[in-house]
Amino acid sequence: MNANLKPEAQDAAQAAPVRFEEREGAYGRIGIATLDAPATLNGLSLEMAQRLDAQLRRWADDPTLAMVWLQGAGEKAFCAGGDLHGLYRGMREQQARGRWGGDDFADPRGNVHAEAFFETEYRLDYRIHSFPKPLLCWGHGIVMGGGIGLMAGASHRVVSERSKLAFPEITVGLYPDVGGSWLLARVPGRAGLFLALTGAPLNAGDAIRAGLADHYLPEAARSAALDAALAAPWSFDAARDRATLTVLLQSLAEPAPAGPLQQHAEAVAALCAGDSLEAIVARIEAIDSDDAWLQNARTTLAAGAPGSARLGFELQRRAASVSLAETFRMEYWVSLHCAAHGDFAEGIRALLIDKDRAPRWNPATLAQADAHWAAAFFHVPEPARPHPLADLGAATEPRA
């Protein structure tokens, strides 16, 4: 358990959905953070995000701590995404107060939970992107949505034979947030747009190809990797220690098996060519292939929220030319608008509450979810300064 925690706090931390531990190594200590809610596939709640962000701040300032290791408990998932049940409760409470839905996009605020959740989650994600020490994320099993938000910014991102990464937000009426607009806009061959529109899953090899992971290690090598990190000659110089960790992981890594994204790279690029979302969607919906990955992509897009397709498209266009910090600030307002006006509540209802899997999307067609419709989601209310994420700086912008 974390040596910096007072005894009375350690019992509470042990029962919390995220656990912290510090291990003494040969040349410095390692902080280990474990998402510990396996029953929900380590879905990221507001409490988890708050605890993890606070601990990362402490570890960043600890001169005796060499690196951080981030992982998830259980065999199935590192983190399957954000806490949709909590967000749904917040949306229903906002609706009960008469501050939800309708055509008034002047101010999406009023959902206390959503405001706290998105601010905390995005701040945590950005902290990981700009963390001043080596930070390894072991992305085993399911890594989706908010889980990718935690993993993407780590200086060293490990995937294994069971890793499955995806941005499936189109199925619940949201869009790839957590900096996903910025990340996916930089995936080669327009594949990031394909992933946003279809929620298509990536195996370890595809995740590395897409720039969402760095090293492929078998799950059986996790203990050996941690032991090697504890024995590593840390210098407490950030650049040198990141290089040390890279060499350590490369010594244990294996070639990652190619996945369907690589196998269909040319087809995906052709499907997503051009600047017309309508044409791109039409080509994907017209896919004629026996390949299960392409078939599932087509089916998911056809059943997904047209508004989510439009928002994902518009956000990637904007994020392609701005910093990650600015992307998070932009996503914050779009996410609050989604929580107040969009299909987000309906998507969660259909998937997790009533479980009828029959969402009634509004707008119901892509023609209705046009660029003019999407523009309202980018509206920033006044007075809205300072931005809740105004202090996310550009001085520590991560890899492009």
What this model shows, in words?
With 400 residues, this protein is of the alpha/beta class. The protein has one domain (7-378): 2-enoyl-CoA Hydratase, Chain A, domain 1. Helices cover 46% and strands 10% of the residues. The chain is built from 18 helices and nine strands. The chain has helices at residues 7-15, 46-61, 84-96, 112-129, 146-152, 180-184, 191-198, 204-209, 222-231, 238-252, 260-263, 265-271, 277-285, 292-303, 306-319, 324-341, 344-353, 371-375; strands at residues 18-24, 29-35, 65-72, 77-79, 135-139, 142-144, 156-159, 164-166, 215-216. The strands form two sheets. Strands 1-2-3-5-7-9 form a six-stranded mixed sheet, with helices on both faces. A hairpin with a 4-residue loop joins strand 1 (18-24) and strand 2. The longest helix has 18 residues, at 112-129. The protein is globular. The two termini are 35 Å apart. Mean pLDDT is 93; it is low at 1-14.
Give the SSE layout.
Blueprint: H1 7-15, E1 18-24, E2 29-35, H2 46-61, E3 65-72, E4 77-79, H3 84-96, H4 112-129, E5 135-139, E6 142-144, H5 146-152, E7 156-159, E8 164-166, H6 180-184, H7 191-198, H8 204-209, E9 215-216, H9 222-231, H10 238-252, H11 260-263, H12 265-271, H13 277-285, H14 292-303, H15 306-319, H16 324-341, H17 344-353, H18 371-375
Parallel strand pairs: 2-3, 3-5, 4-6, 5-7, 6-8, 7-9
Antiparallel strand pairs: 1-2
Helix pairs in contact: 2-4, 3-4, 3-17, 4-5, 4-16, 9-10
